[in-house]
Design goal:
Helix 1 (about 45-60) packs across helix 2 (about 75-90), helix 2 crosses helix 3 and helix 9 packs antiparallel against helix 12. The longest helix is centred in the last third of the chain and has 16 residues, at about 260-275. Helix 2 (about 75-90) links the parallel strand 4 and strand 5 (about 95-100). It is built from 12 helices and 10 strands. It has helices at about 45-60, 75-90, 115-130, 150-165, 180-190, 205-210, 210-220, 245-250, 260-275, 280-290, 305-310, 320-330; strands at about 20, 30, 30-35, 65, 95-100, 135-140, 165-170, 195-200, 220-225, 295-300. The chain is about 35% helix and about 15% strand. The protein has one domain (about 20-330): TIM Barrel (Alpha-Beta Barrel). The strands form 2 sheets. It has an 8-stranded parallel β-barrel with strand order 3-4-5-6-7-8-9-10, surrounded by 5 helices. The chain has a two-stranded antiparallel sheet with strand order 1-2. The protein is α/β, with parallel strands linked by helices. Bound molecules: NADP nicotinamide-adenine-dinucleotide phosphate (NAP). The site of NADP nicotinamide-adenine-dinucleotide phosphate has 31 residues, from strand 10 and helix 11.
């Protein structure tokens, strides 16, 4: 139970954060957004989750990214967020851009997964209750369902937007082959896709190589990167071993098997490039993501306010020389 008297700092929009326009829309997003996939569930201390959310908001991070199953346990990151909305953030609701998603495993039985209209509508209703919200700013289909007709999933997004439970809609992890149809279906119903959310970082170039970035731009959608730090690999976290409080030690989503001596050597060399730019490895990794206008925002995860502060400094220098970009590619073997 939190007895709050939170009051946001006055200069929250003048402390260095920059805002980028999201495709052809009226929405600006902060270059750095905060995601609640890990570290905000019911197994994390509520006071730390609260500190991170309020700290982020005080630094101009007004976009918070959630999904129905974030935790652990499922639903608990939304419940944490809902508590903080109630105790602290209610006066700031109109300054916040809040997302949620449905598409992965959430509840038992045939209606708690994938892309049916039944699942998307019920899940969003549950999410709104957990988050103590009347509406979300953007609702995503979290992944492509190869069995449900894609028109059923997309029409559910259209109808959700028309119901007012979400102001905008987005798609995440959709394969490039389906993108023309998905963007066009939504646009032709006057509910254009606001954002494509995809994994993009120095180590994972799929949005470039599969033309997902280019397609978003062509269709007037924004692109928002998730796991821009490759879940912490692109930071100093693992340069000297695997800390016991790190994601690799704690959670199966980051397989510690990847941390071979050869891989860690590459991370050290990337860290050297970052140092030559006057940045931490995390800052360089985020700056790399933001180096051109194809990316609207990066969604970071964090386990402390210090990590958020480190990451915020990335926006100070997002320009790269060709030599730096070539060297980064050479280090990771591209
Ligand atoms: N649409 C999708 O399918 C999808 C999938 C995954 C994620 N997402 C979204 O993207 C968000 C971010 O994903 P992610 O958590 O994988 O992002 P990430 O930013 O790549 O990794 C976050 C982790 O990196 C470490 N870290 C962050 N800043 C650091 C710093 N300055 N120095 C050292 N370590 C640092 C922390 O690890 P420790 O916890 O070990 O300290 C933190 O938990 C999620 O919360 C979610 O909102 C969406």
């Amino acid at each position: 139970m939190i007895n709050s008297v939170y009051s946001a700092v006055q200069d929250r929009y003048d402390c260095g954060m920059k805002y980028r326009r999201c495709g052809r829309s009226g929405i600006l997003l902060p270059e750095i957004s905060l995601g609640l996939w890990h570290n905000f569930g019911d197994q994390a201390p509520l006071s730390r989750s609260r500190d991170m959310i309020l700290h982020a908001f005080d630094k101009g991070i007004c976009h918070f990214d959630l999904a129905n199953n974030y935790g652990p346990s499922y639903g608990s990151a939304e419940a944490t967020f809902g508590q903080i909305m109630k105790s602290d953030m209610r006066p700031y609701r109109d300054e916040m851009f809040i997302s949620t998603k449905a598409g992965y495993d959430m509840w038992p039985g045939p209606y708690g997964n994938w892309g049916s209209r039944k699942y998307l509508f019920s899940s969003l209703d549950q999410s709104l209750k957990r988050m103590n919200l009347d509406y979300v700013d953007i609702f995503y289909t979290h992944r492509f369902d190869p069995v449900t007709p894609v028109e059923e999933t997309l029409q559910a997004l259209v109808d959700i937007a028309r119901s007012g439970k979400a102001l905008y809609v987005g798609i995440s992890n959709y394969p490039c082959e389906i993108l023309d149809h998905a963007y066009d279906y939504l646009a032709s119903r006057d509910v254009p896709c606001l954002l494509y959310q995809g994994k993009y970082n120095i180590l994972n170039r799929e949005p470039e190589t599969r033309s997902i970035l280019a397609k978003a731009k062509e269709k007037g959608s924004g692109f928002i990167s998730f796991s821009p730090l490759a879940q912490g690999l692109l930071t100093d976290r693992y340069l000297g071993g695997i800390p016991s409080d790190s994601r690799a030690a704690r959670n199966a989503s980051l397989d510690k098997g990847i941390l071979t001596p050869e891989f860690v050597d590459r991370l050290r060399r990337l860290n050297g490039v970052a140092a030559s730019r006057g940045q931490s490895l995390a800052q360089m990794a985020l700056a790399w993501n933001l180096k051109d206008d194809l990316v609207t925002s990066v969604i970071i995860g964090a386990s402390s306010t210090a990590q958020i502060d480190d990451n915020l400094n990335a926006v100070r220098n997002t320009a790269f020389t060709k030599e730096e970009l070539d060297l980064i590619n050479q280090i990771i073997g591209i």
